[in-house]
Amino acid sequence: MTEHAADLRAQLLARIAAGPHAPLSDGDFNRLALAIFAHQFACNTPYRLFCERRGMRPGTVADWTEVPAVPTDAFKAAALVCGDPEAAQAVFRTSGTTAGRERRGTHYLPDVALYDAALRAGFSAHLLPDGARLPVISLVPPPAEMGDSSLSHMAGAVVADYGTERSGWFVSPDGGIDHAGLDNALRGAVERGEPVCILGTAFAFVHWLDALRESDTRHALPPGSRLMDTGGFKGRSREVTREELYAGLTDRLGIPAAWCVNEYGMTEMSSQFYDGVAGAALAPTERMHVGPVWVRTQATDPETLRPLPHGGVGVLRHLDLANLNSVMAIQTADLGFTTPEGFRVLGRATGAEARGCSLAMDDLLRAIAR
């Protein structure tokens, strides 16, 4: 790690330690973003080639909004990392195997310190605002079984740092749910009057709810129990609205919707977004996802990728300062809009809606093929 990178790492760790909602002025954010861009331009060869093809380099970029953003598919095409990918401390891959392991997006992390600091800061602020230490009931496979899953890595950190000895793992890598184990764990929590924290993907909760309805099982979990769901139903044969999901969880587990929080994360990022704080979350239809102060989100024109004003529907772009040693500016294929309070995802960009992302991807492929 260069001296410049080590200094940036120290600054970011201090910023993250202050909390996800501690004040960070636009000027300070811009200063950090430009310094990180210079580092990534110097040390991340595929990204530098992409920037050069677009005529952008340190000295010509004056504001964080001008930092070239790579489409998420770029993580499938190149090792976007500062340094040797073989020396990465962690390697996270996107889900899905239809195109084979080599076609999954890959995020190389030479150092997980920033990643872990960011996930802990966000989770504790949104799921544990009361500082509770609870049994963590995970419907996410453990990291020992899915070492390249960023979600499993996150769940492992949560269990290790915030869970009690009664925490447990109740789903296998192939998605199989340990229904008997779950029932026993929750019955024990009810008998002890001990609140729990449940983690899982939205689709895992749907399957669990189906089983609970089929067996006519309900658990009246103690007050203070909370739940984090993540992911959606992309590529699934069945879709359930978040209102329906939370209503089912309230009915079968006794956890009110105000204690259910959705986490939105991406393999290509080091930070996460949440749509509420456990115990005070709004109704699902009224929520916006909010990021930490070291992340900025914009909606961009689907064709030109130029930033849109608040309320304008476009493809979302995130700039995550915690992505120090990969690429901080990520152009997603998610359609959505921003407000001063946060952003909302409306779906996936397809066809003409994704034209700008396709052109950016073409630029990257041409640049790294030179």
CATH topology of the largest domain: Rossmann fold
Number of discrete domains: 2
Describe the main β-sheet briefly: 6 strands, mixed
Protein structure class: alpha/beta
**Helix and strand succession?**
HHHEHEEHEHEHEHEHEEEEEEH
Unreliable spans are none
Mean pLDDT: 92
Determine the fraction of residues in helical runs and give it as a percent range: 25-40%
Q: Any guess at the CATH architecture of the largest domain?
A: 3-Layer(aba) Sandwich
Main-sheet strand order equals 5-4-6-7-8-9
Strand percentage: 15-25%
Distance between the termini: 27 Å
Tell me the total number of β-strands: 13
Number of helical regions: 10
Shape: globular
Output the CATH class name of the largest domain: Alpha Beta
What is the CA-atom radius of gyration, in angstroms? 21 Å
Protein name: Acyl-protein synthetase LuxE domain-containing protein
Organism: Longimicrobium terrae
Domain Acyl-protein synthetase LuxE: 29-364
GO biological process, one term: bioluminescence
